Give the backbone structure.
Amino acid sequence: MSRRTVIFEPGDADRRERRRLRKDARAAERAPASESSSRRDRRLPESAVPGPFGPGLVEGGYWNLAAPAIPPHQATSQHIAGIYPFVADGGLGHRGPIVGVDLNADALWHFSPWEAYVDTSDRGAFSTNILVLGAYRSGKSATVKTLATRSIAFGHQVVVPSDPKGEWVTVAEAIPGGKVIRLGGGTGARLNPLARGPRRTGTSDEQHEQMVKQRRIATLIALVEMALGTVRLTAVEHAAIHDALERCIDRTADHPTLRGVYDELGALASDASSPFHANEGALQPRFVLRRFVTGDLSGLFEDESTVEFDQDAPIVVTDTSELFARGELAAQLTQVCTTAWIQAVISDRGAHRTRYVVREEGWRDMTSLAALQMFQQWLKLSRHYGISNIVILHKIGDLDAVGEADSVERALAYSIIGDIENKFIFRVNQQEYRGLRDRLQLPPAHADLARQLRKGEFLAYVGQYSYLVDCFATSTDWERDLFQTDDAIDAIDAADRDDFVDRLAVDLDALWPIDTEVETDIDGWLAAPSPEEQK
């Protein structure tokens, strides 16, 4: 075998040193090659049979051309955290219910927004609200139900102001002491969104009256602006609503209702001598409220409440599934009314009760500027009242239904969502990549990962840290059956499927009868064509 010598000369070497290096290189080239050593000299064992591969793969010798099968290293998360301190994360600790398995640390992942809020370390959060974002069938609904139901054992109450699909009704009925408030469908239940609610503990009379008045006005303006769409209320219309509410409060001894405000607006509209054209400003709001008094939403929100909120129930669900079939606008108005009634009841810090408020289809709470401002204020006061709002969205693009492009409403909606510090990001569609990066400021690697998550897996952002969690890894059979949301798809059982297939086969045979025998021999297809066929 030929040898070739390469000489590396130092840059600062003089001529004598370079000459000596070249002389040593020529001597090394002329030196005889060393003799090859034997296995015995190298202390290697001899092969069992002659040949370069010994017994090879047939006789089970030590020679093996296949790749070695080395089992992976297994250890506890405590030891892995010591071996790989920058890979195995310590997690959030063991405070709060178990939500799933931290896939990065291979350990149980506990989470409680209140525990994260009171945590003074760098893993703490500055908000108790949670944004849940994910595509359909990504597991977000089951994860929220898992977190909420397991938190009941820790003393937290679960409140669903509006259940548009009836998914939470089965959960509330399965939990001992759970309460369901059904609206529509001939139940006769009514909720008054202008109800005063309980007295806030620790507030003066003036503060309490101001808070109640502000909430009532915000509810009325949100309902009217939502029904009018892109039309903004004028200053005269605002004044008419304020005046009608004040008159209704005085006339009913502080028990205002939508029907009472509707009647007062009618009185204002018929008074041509009212100053500053207040009669003209009362027309538009009165037409909107007529829908609640004599329209398709009558019998639900126009009079005093016929049901009460159970403060001691572990879970309270307002079933609005019967109302959402009346159209999208009716669904939005219903959600504003039920949310306003719930907020009036649970906004009491002195109750010393921590609650999850689950907002299904959260974008419906932000369909007008007034609704956005009321929603933003409610999110800011959540820590004061011990509330964790869980806002559920299917995609970032849901907020494009809020206002016009580049409008104040849409910018405010994106700002509200971006300010929610705790985020659960489930699998998203391919087109959501840019929205995750631009709107939620997710790193590119996280945005790519969000498109590849499996069902039940989500990226959790709590404070300054992120976690990859698998919720379904800790789910029980009882939870999986209870939280199933694909009932419409899985409604046909095995017997029904077999019967359906049999009927389908009969129908196909009837539509496509076969009277003649079909040639199934492929040899004829491969044979050369006859001279007649070639012509």
